[in-house]
From TrEMBL:
Keyword Signal found: no
Record PTM 4-aspartylphosphate, positions in chain: 52
Organism of derivation: Thalassotalea insulae
Gene3D superfamilies (alphabetical): 1.10.8.60, 3.40.50.2300, Homeodomain-like, P-loop containing nucleotide triphosphate hydrolases
Domain Response regulatory intervals: 3-122
Pfam families given in the database record: AAA_lid_14, HTH_8, Response_reg, Sigma54_activat
Entry keywords, A to Z: ATP-binding, DNA-binding, Nucleotide-binding, Phosphoprotein, Transcription, Transcription regulation
Protein name listed in UniProt: Sigma-54-dependent Fis family transcriptional regulator
PROSITE patterns: RESPONSE_REGULATORY, SIGMA54_INTERACT_2, SIGMA54_INTERACT_3, SIGMA54_INTERACT_4
């Protein structure tokens, strides 16, 4: 709920404005002089100020209001201030409007005009603050891009910004990292960033999809094998750990590693030592291990399918990559990247893209963009090009709204600093729809 500060020495005016504004879902704070307004502006979240121009009896010059206005501007330069006076001094009005006053209304005011003015100014200020925040984030990202190698990662969400910041910070160390998240979210890209921004960036970076390795060859792939160690082993085989010596080894789908492989991996992490299959000679390597999984390793540990001691060796730092449905701000930038901005994206197509849940995450979105590039026959991107339909938006929005949980709303509002329009966009909702969900969950506006 937006909070409005009324600064007026007339109790009747304060009472009338309080009733009017509270009837229209505003929270109202009233004070009788500018001095009392200062600490409120400094320490409370005020959306707009209604400021009287005269406070001393028999004074009509407007100088008191003028002085207060400039003091408010020093405290909060972007705070919208509407000037109220029974004495319409146009010279003073023009001066203050030129210097940032939002509007200048004469007493007695027109209720409808005042309400429209307040609503428009608060909305405009939300947009401006959002724009400034985005500009700040863009500058931070550009600086981060300049200082770090992000390996072409495309993102716009606050959640991914935090993940990237942490990834770049962790990259400077040599600790083992576990990357978690559902299939298709880009865990391998995070591993790339970890290696490319580490002191080992110019050393080998070996990637192994553990889930794609046959069980009978998994240990040979990781640790190597001597000739004759198993059927078909006609010559000595160098394992991935040896190949990664001095550098980084990325083990994707680590939850699929066999128990015997887990035991050997634990030993390597503890001592740096292992033996090739069929050999008694101990090898020593210096390898940083980055692993990734979409599995619930805690459950695997309880079921006896994954070693708890290995889990804690791998998971010195955990980096969680959220599902695309939880970072909707990334959807349109990714579409622009995958489609190379070949065509205009109309609003209804954006709505379809944002409303879809993308269970296959970034991988599914990339495939949809490839489909669109092949099948599109119009000058603008259509929802059908991406395998979606406008009906998905028009008829399923109420069903989609029901999938938005209280936690998701609170997270979006926090990430966008309380700006409802930005939080709604991130969730794929209209502002009115978000307000409905907030009312349902009794989340304060």
């Amino acid at each position: 709920m937006d909070k409005i500060l009324v600064v007026d020495d007339n109790p009747s005016v304060c009472s009338a404005l309080t009733i009017l504004l509270e009837l229209h879902d505003y929270q109202v704070v009233t004070v009788s002089c500018p001095a009392d307004a200062m600490p409120i502006i400094m320490y409370q979240s005020i959306a707009l100020v209604l400021l009287d121009m005269n406070f001393t009896q028999d004074t009509t010059s407007g100088e008191e209001g003028k002085k207060a206005f400039y003091q408010f501007r020093q405290l909060q330069p972007d705070l919208p201030v509407i000037l109220l006076t029974a004495w319409t001094d146009l010279t003073t009005a023009i001066e203050l409007v030129k210097n940032g006053a939002a509007d200048y209304l004469a007493k007695p005011w027109d209720d409808e005009k005042l309400l429209v003015t307040i609503a428009n100014l608060i909305e405009l200020n939300d947009v401006q603050q959002t724009s400034k925040q985005l500009s700040k984030q863009q500058r931070e990202r550009e600086q981060l891009n300049h200082q770090a190698n992000l390996c072409g990662l495309v993102f716009a969400s606050t959640a991914m910004q935090r993940l990237v910041d942490m990834t770049v910070q962790v990259a400077k160390s040599t600790v083992n990292v576990l990357i978690t998240g559902p299939n298709g979210v880009g865990k391998e890209k995070i591993a790339d960033i970890l290696h490319q921004n580490s002191p080992r960036a110019h050393q080998p970076f070996i990637k192994v999809n553990v889930g794609a390795l046959p069980l009978d060859l998994m240990e040979a792939e990781l640790f190597g094998a001597e000739a004759g160690a198993y059927t078909g082993a006609n010559k000595k085989r160098i394992g991935r750990f040896e190949a990664a010596d001095g550098g980084t080894l990325f083990l994707d789908e680590i939850g699929n590693l066999s128990l015997s492989g887990q035991m050997k991996l634990l030993r390597v992490l503890q001592t740096g030592e292992f033996e090739r299959l069929g050999s008694s000679q101990t090898q020593t390597v210096d390898v940083r291990v980055i692993s990734a999984t979409n599995a619930n390793l805690h459950q695997d540990i309880q079921e006896g399918n994954f070693r708890e001691d290995l889990y804690y060796r791998l998971n010195v730092i955990e980096l969680e990559v959220l599902a695309l449905s939880q970072r909707k701000d990334d959807i349109l930038p990714l579409v622009e990247y995958f489609t190379q901005s070949q065509k205009v994206m109309p609003k209804h197509t954006k709505q379809a893209l944002l409303a879809h849940q993308w269970p296959g995450n970034v991988r599914e979105l990339e495939n949809a963009c490839q489909r669109a590039a092949l099948l599109s026959q119009t000058e603008e991107w259509q929802a059908q090009d991406f395998g979606l339909t406008p009906v998905d938006v028009e008829h399923n929005m109420s069903e989609f709204e029901e999938t938005i949980t209280k936690a998701m709303i609170e997270q979006a509002i926090a990430e966008h600093h309380g700006v409802i329009s930005r939080a709604a966009k991130a969730l794929g909702l209209s502002r009115q729809a978000l307000y409905r969900r907030m009312d349902k969950f009794e989340i304060k506006k």
